[in-house]
Amino acid sequence: MLETQGLGLRAAGRPLVEGLDWQVNAGERWCVIGRNAAGKSTLLRALAGLAVPERQGSVRWLGRPQADWPAAAAAWARAYAPQQALARYPLSVQRLLELSPVRPGPLR
Predict the structure, then answer these.
(1) Sequence-ordered list of residues with C-beta below 8 angstroms from that of 38, at least 6 positions apart, any chain
(2) Which of 55, 56, 86, 91 fits 8 for a cystine, CB–CB 3.0-4.6 Å?
(3) Cα separation of 88 and 102, whole Å?
(4) 104 within some domain
């Protein structure tokens, strides 16, 4: 489960997300949509535990504060595939998931 409480994100002093209380349970799928520069990538980076310039509130994975997860455990608990491909892994998101040791179900 992924949960946010009072999550606020800003970039260059501009609010992107304010007071987000949100919960995603196992098996649920969500989509984040918005115009260019609305903060979609910043939100996903914050949810994945990656560096975000200005952040407030909390994010919990499986009921545990995000900051309490050791890096190796966090890598197993979540996945993040940025829009820009990493040069050393020029694979599609689907192919990366197919190569993953964790198989939640068939890819569609």
Answers:
(1) 16
(2) 56
(3) 21
(4) no
Contacts of 28 (CB under 8 A, 6+ apart): none
Q: Which residue has the tokens 């890096």?
A: 71
30 part of a folded domain: yes
Other C-beta atoms closer than 10 Å to the C-beta of 68 total 10
The total of structural domains in the chain comes to 1
| pLDDT tops 50 at residue 108 | no
Give CB contacts under 8 A, 24+ apart, made by 80-86.
80/44, 80/45, 80/48, 80/50, 82/41, 83/41
Nearest to 92 by CA among 80, 77, 79, 81: 81
What is the C-alpha separation between 8 and 12, in angstroms, rounded?
13
CA distance 27 to 94: 18
β-strands 2-11, 14-24: how paired? antiparallel
Domain containing residue 35 = 2-80
